[in-house]
Design a protein that fits this description.
The protein is an alpha/beta fold and about 350 residues long. The protein has three domains: about 80 residues, Beta Barrel (OB fold (Dihydrolipoamide Acetyltransferase, E2P)); about 160 residues, 3-Layer(aba) Sandwich (Rossmann fold), CATH 3.40.50.300; about 90 residues, Ribonucleotide Reductase Protein R1, domain 1. It has a six-stranded mixed sheet with strand order 10-9-8-11-13-12, with helices on both faces. Strand 6 and strand 7 form a beta hairpin. The protein is flat and about 70 Å long. Bound molecules: guanosine-5'-triphosphate and zinc ion. Guanosine-5'-triphosphate binds next to helix 7. It is an enzyme of class 3 (hydrolase).
């Protein structure tokens, strides 16, 4: 295995599995379009598609390769053939826009997720909470990147606001005008590591990546800063930055679905408070001995944050129920106490007897 593959993130975690595929080569997916995967391999770039058997065995979107995946391929004269996707270390997904609960794979095998948000008109603390939940849920470590500091007059106050919802998460402030914050960003990108950039369209992800690459590889948006421009990133692409690690650029996510997110990490404060509530099924409404409501009264927790948490919880719950379709869970959800379930069962039995 040559050094480039190591820089690309092919470490012992993956190599252990690679050994089982004698006669096949390993590659990392750098982009995909209409079933054709672009791979980086120790023999350079090549195109590939999945085998018929692969397609036959696949049961859903999660089985297919995505950007960042390491795959085992067989070389042929035309497109190489992908036979296997190596086990993933992490996986960033998003819910498809619209009604379906089908997940869309964004990127795999990421070590860190840079959540980018601009300090001017894109700034939204509730959205940051969503991004954090999704990032923690992927298995990668989130880092917050606040861009366009030059367009913001109260950076301090906004940092303060961010720090309240991002316990244990590093925050970097950047500006393309004076290259502020670019060096710290580089420090998060040692060779062999993979970073994915997420955040709304126009916040400056491509600008930041181009600065890291030291060249204009990605087209940046028009000179407007009003987030209404039409030209937005549509690709998802993986780049190996020489001397540094791997970067994955993702499209601006307009609607970030919440799919069984791990709320305990991004809302660890509420989670802690919940443990102190008198009742362990406390809904934090008007129950006696509710530590969450007490914290709101004491001004330690904002009501908005609790609402945001409860909204995410409901959404995550709904997605879970829908995905798994567990009848028992559903009953529990519909009737939140046992007595009601019993009454319901009795009624069902009686009804059946009448038949
Ligand atoms: N003033 C200022 N403008 C910036 C900064 N960073 C980026 N911009 C500008 O913001 C616009 C959008 O930047 P992009 O890098 O294309 O944004 P993006 O996040 O990649 O957007 P998508 O490709 O749509 O996802 C461009 O006009 C940039 O020049 C910054 O720190 N300060
Ligand atoms: Zn409570």
């Amino acid at each position: 295995m040559n050094n480039e593959m190591k820089d690309l993130g092919l470490n012992d975690f993956f190599l252990k599995e690679v050994k089982h595929f004698e006669g096949l080569h390993v590659g990392r997916v750098s982009s995909l379009s209409k079933g054709i995967y672009k791979l980086i391999t120790d023999q350079g770039e090549l195109k590939a598609e999945v085998s018929g058997k692969f397609r036959y065995k696949a049961t859903g979107a999660r089985n297919y390769p995505t950007v960042g995946d390491f795959v085992m391929i067989k070389r042929t004269d035309g497109n190489s053939i992908i036979h296997h996707v190596l086990s993933r270390k992490s996986l960033l997904v998003r819910k498809e826009a619209g009604m379906t609960q089908e997940t869309q794979l964004i990127a795999a095998n990421i070590d860190k997720i840079f959540i980018c948000m601009s300090l001017n008109n894109d700034f939204n603390i509730r959205r940051m909470e969503r991004y954090l939940s999704i990032a923690w849920d992927s298995g990668a470590i989130p880092v917050i990147v606040l861009t366009k500091a030059d367009l913001c007059e109260n950076v301090e106050a906004m940092l303060e606001e961010v720090s309240r919802i991002s316990i244990g998460v590093d925050v970097i402030v950047t500006s393309s005008v004076d290259n502020e914050g670019y060096e710290p960003v580089k420090n998060y990108l040692p060779s062999g590591q993979t970073v994915a950039f997420i955040g709304s369209s126009g916040v400056g992800k491509s600008t930041l990546i181009n600065a890291l690459l030291g060249q204009e590889l990605i087209e940046t948006r028009d000179l407007r800063n009003d987030e209404k421009g039409k030209h937005t990133t549509t690709r998802r692409e993986l780049f190996l930055i020489s001397g540094l690690g791997v970067v994955i650029d993702t499209p601006g996510m307009r609607e970030l679905g919440v799919h069984s997110v791990d709320l305990s990490k991004s809302f660890s404060d509420i989670d802690e408070l919940t443990k102190q509530c008198k009742f362990n099924n406390c809904q934090h409404k008007s129950e006696p001995g509710c530590a969450v409501q007490q914290a709101i009264t004491d001004g330690e927790l904002s009501n908005k944050r609790l609402q945001s948490y409860q909204k995410l919880e409901r959404e995550a719950r709904r997605a879970e129920l829908k995905a798994e379709g567990r009848e028992k869970e559903r009953l529990k959800y519909m009737f939140d106490n046992l007595r009601q379930i019993k009454r319901f069962r009795k009624a069902v039995k009686a009804k059946n007897r009448r038949r």
